[in-house]
Amino acid sequence: MGKELRQTIKTITSHHLKKNKSQVFGQNLTGVGWVAGTLPKLFEKDGVIELPMADVAGGGIVTGSALMGKRPIYIIRYQGYNWFNCIFIVNYACKSNAIWKIPCPMMIRGISSEGSIGPVAGSAHISTIYKMPGLKIFSPMTNKEYSNVYKNFMKSKDVFYISEHRSSYSNTREFKNDLTGNKDIILMPISVTRFAAEKAKLILEKKGFSVGIIHLVNLKPFLIKSEWIKAIKKSKFGVLMTDNDYVDGVLRILAHQINEKTNKPVSVLGLDDKTAGHHKKVDNLPPNELKIVERIKIIIKKK
Amino acid sequence: MINNKRNFSLNVFERASICRHFENEVYKRIVKKEIEFPVYLSAGQEYAPATIAEIVSIKKIKPLIFGQHRGHSIYLSFGGDINKLIKELKGKKDGCTYGMGGSLSIHSMKINMYGHDGFMGSNACIGTGACFSSKKPTIIFIGDAALEEDYVLASLSWVSKKKLPILFVVDDNNYAVLTKKDERRDWEAKELAKAFKMQSFDMMDDPMKISKYLKKSLFKKPTLVNIHTQRIFWHAGAGKDKENVFDRYLQQKKLLGRKADLLDEKIKKRMKLLWEKN
Question: B101: nearest CA in chain A?
Answer without folding.
Answer: A99
